[in-house]
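Support request from a user on the community tier.

User writes: "When I paste my structure tokens into the form, the page sometimes reloads and wipes my input. The last time it worked, I copied everything first. Here is what I submitted, just in case something in the input itself triggers the reload:"
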């Protein structure tokens, strides 16, 4: 996907990715963030399933980065009782 995704598109992608990551986490009893560290450091055997898991995790990370770029837009729809700065979420 491109950097010009809409906020709705980003959220939809994240919601679609999460159940897929959860399947891997349940199967291997390991959170994706821990798996990815092992994968990135070459501590796992090269298996096609691990490549798929890593690609999903990378997609999630990318969408979260895009979401952060749209955070001001997301916050503008919230009924806030006090002003919020985007920098509070870094």
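"...and here is what came back when it finally went through:"
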């Amino acid at each position: 996907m491109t950097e010009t995704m809409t906020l709705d598109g980003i959220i939809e992608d994240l919601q679609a990715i999460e159940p897929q990551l959860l399947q891997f986490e349940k199967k291997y009893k390991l959170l994706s963030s821990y798996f990815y560290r092992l994968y990135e450091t070459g501590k796992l055997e090269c298996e096609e399933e691990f490549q798929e898991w890593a690609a999903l995790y990378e997609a999630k990370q990318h969408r979260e980065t895009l979401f952060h770029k749209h955070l001001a837009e997301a916050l503008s729809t919230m009924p806030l009782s006090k002003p919020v700065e985007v920098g509070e979420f870094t």
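Agent notes: The reload is a front-end session timeout and is unrelated to the input. The chain has one domain: 7-77. Residues 7-77 form one domain. Escalated to web team.
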